[in-house]
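Notes, Module 5: Reading structure tokens.

Key idea: the token line is not a picture. It is a compressed description, and you learn to read it the same way you learned to read a sequence, by spotting repeated patterns. We will look at two proteins. The first is printed below with its tokens.
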Amino acid sequence: MSEKLPEKNGSDEIDLGQVFKIIGNFFQSVFNLIKTILAGIFNLFIGFLLLIKENIIKFLIIGVGTLVAGYLLDSNKDLIFYDTLKIQPNFGSTDQIYSDIKFYNNLILAKDTIELSNSLGISPDEAASLIEIYIKPISDENQILKMYDEFNETIQDTLSTTGINYETFKLNLISSEFPNHIIFVKSTDPFVFIKLENSILNGKVKTNKFLKNNQKVTVDNYSFKDKELEKREAKIDSLRIIYSKVMLKSVEKQANSGTTIQFSENKTTSHELDLFKLEKEINEERLLLNTDKALTNDMINVVSGFQRRGNLFKVEFFDKTPIKFFIIGMLALFGFLFIKKLNTYLGDYKKNIDA
């Protein structure tokens, strides 16, 4: 008997034609959707151009009118000037200086020119000329990297730094942790800035008892360290003198007895090197101490002070009054015309339904 091969079930066969048809329909739907969207955008753009064409006179009137009105308003305004004061607070005075600046700015916002003039030591008219005052840290990537390195050096236990990477450290920094800060002042009086410097630097920062105590303790510590260095220097000088005397007596004995005494050159060199190393360490400590004393001589170091005359404040293009008026006028006109068109369309649509 001849064996017959099993026939394949037609339902198990894959109809490739149907698959390709489905895929083709899918892509056709996607293309149609894109075509519809592009056509809609094109129609909106044409409608926008037609709207402008139909109302070109209105747009010209509103545009020119808002620009002229903004220019006239700006021409009657006082010029605005600004200046900056860069400082380096010491003895933990950063929080206090931030609090003082916030207090002054609140008085400006409240237009309390009397209290402001008393606090800053200026006339009420000069106080009325102030527009804004604020402070912020001077920060850049190099400064933050330096602070991050110092942070790692201060922690002896390396396990405690686990999970504190650079980005985490950067996100958790607060203003008071930065060494340098900048105070920004805006005013209509270009000559008021130089009068503010002493008042800002000599505010509550100078009368704060906690800060004054920190300053006193720091100065006393510097004085103590200075005396300790002087004592160490005196001991080194004494050792050098004693060593010289011993050497001189040894030479005299050798000359008187006529015998030869061999001194160990290694030992002599060792003594000289020890004294030299000690003296070098003291000199390095002295340099660091003098630098610290110079940097912390005042409660607040002035890195860059106010100038005798402020700088003219340049307003950004989109912050200028004519540009603002122009944008608002155009948007208002577009809104009005759109509502008018929509109202007409709805009226026609209702008529068609009723018909």
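Here is the second protein, with the sequence above and the tokens below, as before.
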Amino acid sequence: MIAVASLQGIEKLHFIGVAGTGMSAIAQYLSEAGKTITGSDRYFHPSEKNETQEKLVAEGIQCYLQDGSGIDELTQVIVISTAIEESNVEIQKARSLSIPIIKRAELLSLIVQDKRTIAIGGTSGKSTSLLTSPFNTPFCKPSQSSSIFRKCLPLGSKSFSKRILCLCLRF
């Protein structure tokens, strides 16, 4: 298995299971950060309307059936959720192309490694905690995601010279 130590230099990622709440939020965040994001999900069907898929496409994320068609030689990293089985056709295609495969948790670690991060987790109260926090200011831009995933802009203070990432994690 090929390790991914940093997102630096990574321009194109493919999410298998992109319609999940956590996966779609991260995909949108990385798309907003300028990465090329593609994704697939077992719930995407050509003859059925899918609200999550429509939102992702509106954010510039190309969505595919879960048949391997969204993965090509330009794909640099595959991101999977824990719900994706090893027998998935896209995992097999990624392995045949020697594309690194990482789990959602590993990607979150890569995203926050160079940012000051405030993470709020748990089974209840996350939205309230974030909305009543001092980081719910005009400096913070809410994501379009259904999951709360906030990207804060530089605050102008030397103590906050790096970007601050505020996020809520759903369990």
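Summary for the second protein:
- The longest strand covers residues 116-122.
- The radius of gyration is 16 Å.
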